[in-house]
Give the backbone structure.
Amino acid sequence: MAFRAVVQEGSASAAATKLAMSNPAVSRHIQTLEHQLKLKLFHRTRRRLILTEEGARFFTETERILRNLSDLPQIARDIQKTVSGSLRVIAMPRHIYGIVSPAVARFREANPETGLTVDVFRRSKFNDWIEGRNFDVGFGTFPLNQRSLESLPLIRAQVMVAMRHDDKLARHDVISAEDLARRGQIAFPRGSIPRRQSDEMMQSTGIEPNYVMETSDYALACKQCIDSGSLFLVDPISALPFGVHLVCRPLWTRRWIQFGAFFPADARRSAGIEALVDTVRSVCSDLVQEKLAEALDPSISSLADRLNY
C-alpha cells in the first residue's frame, strides 16, 4: 500500500499523510519491498521519488490486480443472491443497439423477477473484463482467442458501406474500391480488427486506402456519415439505430462479421442465462427474416451444441 500511495500522491510525505504513517515508516516499507522483489522501484532525489522503468511496469501490473481485488465484495454479494435473482451481462458496443438492447427488453418483459446488470465495454478493455470474471454472459464479435471462454456463434453480418440516404453512391448496386479511395472513408484506429480488415480488402485490389477520419466509436462514425456525407465500413445491424437516414450498400467483395455469446469456460450456466441467450438468438432470427435477409447469415448453433468456436 505504501508503494501505491507514493505513486498516486507523488511524494513520500504525501503518502505518509494519506496512510497516517511517518515518512521514515513509508521509506522503510518501500525499501523492504525493493529488497523482496529485487527491483529498484524509484529514483531518489532530495525532494521526491521518481518511478524507474521497472517501477512503472510493476505499478501497472499491481493496479490491475488491485482493481480485480476491489471487485471481491460485489462478487460476494452476487453469490449471495439466488440463481435467478440477477444476471451480469457484458457487451461490446458494435451490436448493442441492434441486437442486445431489444433482446434485453424482451427478456425483462418475460422475466420481470430477474435483475439485469448490463455493462458495455470496448474491445481494447476486453482482457480486463475477462480477467476480472465479473460476468455471467457476454455478447460481442468473434474471434475472441481466449482459452478461458466458451463461445457460441449466433449470426454473421456482411460488411457493407454505410452512407447518407441521399448519397449518389446509394444508387449503386455495389461499392468498389475505387469509390472508397476517391471519396475517402472513416476508419477505426490502426491495429484494430475492423481496420485490419479494411486494409486487407484495399490492399487486395492494389488501391491505396484513403482514410479521412479515425474513430473507435461506431455510433459516431455512422452519425458522421449522416452529418458530413462520409463513408464507413459497417454491418447493417450496427446501422439499424439510424433508420432511414443511413443506408448500406454491398462491397465488391464479401466479408463477414461474426456475432455471438461467450461465457466463462468453467462456470455453470443457469436457466436465466440460457433464456437470455435464446432471446438474443430470437432477435437475430427476426433480423434475418424481416429486414436484412440478404446481408445476414444465421448460425444453427444452440446451447446443446459444443460451444467452442
About this structure: The mean pLDDT is 85.
